[in-house]
Design a protein that fits this description.
Blueprint: H1 4-16, E1 25-27, E2 30-33, E3 37-42, E4 45-51, E5 55-58, E6 61-63, H2 67-110, H3 115-134, E7 142-144, E8 147-148, H4 152-184, H5 191-244, E9 254-256
Antiparallel strand pairs: 1-8, 1-9, 2-3, 2-7, 3-4, 4-5, 5-6
Helix pairs in contact: 1-2, 1-4, 1-5, 2-3, 2-4, 2-5, 3-4
């Protein structure tokens, strides 16, 4: 039984950290997108706004554009519309893998739909809801604050990893009670055999988790790599806009380190 706590915590750390990946890019502003416009925020105030992917406003004033500038702006706006939801999707998927992995361990220990399992599931459901709220994620509306993307794990999974560990730690007593009852009810084995059988069961669960989480973790890391490449291309396009539109000469949303 001494393997129970390390197994759960190991599952938490390994799974909740699946999105960890270097991405040397910084957003200097917050970004809000919805179906009608893209807004770039500086201290909660709209600094740049793009309506319908082709109409540019800077600090509330519309900027007249020629055809070439409008084409550049449209490609840039559509790029932001594609990449911001991608960030949110990576974040949600990474934490979701962590929750499912830990959930599977607890269900395996206490029995699926046990009181302990249901209580923890409720806490996990609440956490997933708050994750979506963090990005104001509803339908096609998204928000990302000014931040570094040099470690996705710190940005998205860090605080949730700690919370998962906290939930599990608080529930260890209940989990152990459920495990103890299950072992006591097995009258065909003596106490030493029960412990050995249970430890073997835990080791099997660890192996299963690695096989289940590993491929999904790799998929997310590949998504992060692709996301970073796309942002770097978008940064090059942003540089073209800065050079082409005088009013954007000091505007720099995407900063590549």
């Amino acid at each position: 039984m001494n393997l129970i706590t390390p197994t759960i915590i190991a599952a938490t750390i390994a799974a909740a950290s699946v999105s960890a990946q270097q991405c040397d890019i910084h957003f200097n502003y917050g970004v809000v997108i919805n179906p009608d416009h893209v807004r770039i925020l500086e201290k909660s105030q709209t600094h740049v706004q793009i309506n319908n992917d082709n109409q540019l406003f800077i600090q509330g004033r519309e900027i007249s554009l020629n055809q070439q500038q409008m084409v550049l702006l449209t490609i840039y706006s559509q790029g932001i519309r594609k990449q911001i939801p991608e960030i949110v999707a990576i974040a949600i998927e990474g934490v979701d893998i962590g929750l499912k992995a830990v959930n599977k361990v607890i269900a395996g220990l206490t029995g699926e739909n046990s009181a302990a399992h249901q209580k923890i599931q409720e806490r996990f459901d609440e956490m997933q809801y708050r994750l979506r709220e963090r990005f104001n994620h509803s339908d096609k509306n998204y928000y990302i604050a000014s931040q570094d993307f040099d470690d996705f794990d710190d940005i998205f999974a860090g605080e949730f990893e700690q919370e998962i560990e906290s939930i599990v730690t608080e529930s260890i007593g209940t989990i152990l009670m459920a495990v103890g009852e299950a072992m006591t009810n097995n009258e065909e084995q003596n106490s030493e055999q029960r412990v050995e059988a249970f430890d073997e069961r835990i080791r099997g669960m660890e192996k299963d988790l690695k096989l289940e989480v590993g491929p999904r973790a790799q998929e997310i890391k590949l998504k992060v790599i692709q996301f970073c490449r796309s942002l770097k291309k978008l940064d090059q396009l942003e540089n073209e806009l800065q050079q082409s539109i005088e009013q954007l000469s000091h505007f720099d949303l995407i900063q590549t380190k």
